[in-house]
Amino acid sequence: MRGEIEFMPRSPEQNREIREKRIQQILDATLCVYRERGYHGTEMGAIARQAGLGRGLIYYYFKDKQDVFLTLIRQTLELWKVEVDPLLNSDRPVAEKLAEYLRMICYASLEYPDIYHLHQSITRDIKVLFPEREKEVYGYYENNMFQPLRNQFLIAAESGEIGLCPEVAERFFFSVLFEAVSQDYPRARDSVEEMVKAALYGLVGSKKGKPE
Q: Does 110 score more than 90 pLDDT?
């Protein structure tokens, strides 16, 4: 009939784009609410309001709040691994790769503070928040962050590039790394290089001037 509006069905590509957009909208809203209220205060209704979506639509994409957070944790860690893989797989000396890794994560934490607040805070309570899926959550961190760096320490130890055993080097580096992205104190971009230098070469930088 004349005057009727014909609606063309969406293509699979359009449906996929809409789905991805909605999911990202929900995840971004979750980050905002989590920063203000913490895990227990981040209810599905609050996420829906922050995202500007209906509560029912949130449940269309996610089973429950835990599902939202697990997706958020997994996605951000996988994106980080994609970002740093070219660096870690390059032929540069390990010390250079570790220095650049620290720079990247420091600058990223300044640019995306909500993401780094999520990981810094939620890793303290994985056993409590995800008791039935604890192994799965730890696996996200192991596969996307810990293991790729652990491989670098093994390579450096075998080549003699570092004088510490890989286990000690790994513990030290991650302690510096987590402190570097800590949200407990303010950081500035002009302090990143000093932090990288201290992390790799120590406070003195050489044995000169070392007290007997």
A: no
Pairwise CA distance, residues 198 & 186, whole Å:
18
**Residues of the domain holding 17:** 11-62
Query: Is residue 50 located within the same domain as residue 83?
Result: no
For the chain, where are the E strands, in sequence order? none
Same domain, 146 and 53: no
Token digits of residue 126: 């994985």
Cα–Cα distance list, 205 to 193, 200, 210 (Å): 14, 9, 10
Cβ pair 97, 159 in contact under 8 A: no
In a domain, 6, yes or no: no
pLDDT for res 185: 57
* CA-based nearest residue to 167, from 150, 183, 155: 150
Reference 156, options 143, 169, 173; nearest CA is 169
Between 197 and 74, the higher pLDDT residue:
74
Binned at pLDDT 50, 70 and 90, residue 8 comes out as low
68 and 38 inside one domain = no
Q: Are residues 43 and 132 in the same domain?
A: no
Query: Average pLDDT for residues 192-201, to the nearest whole number?
Result: 78
Q: pLDDT-based confidence at 209, cuts 50/70/90?
A: very low
Count of structural domains, the chain: 2
Radius of gyration of the chain (CA): 22
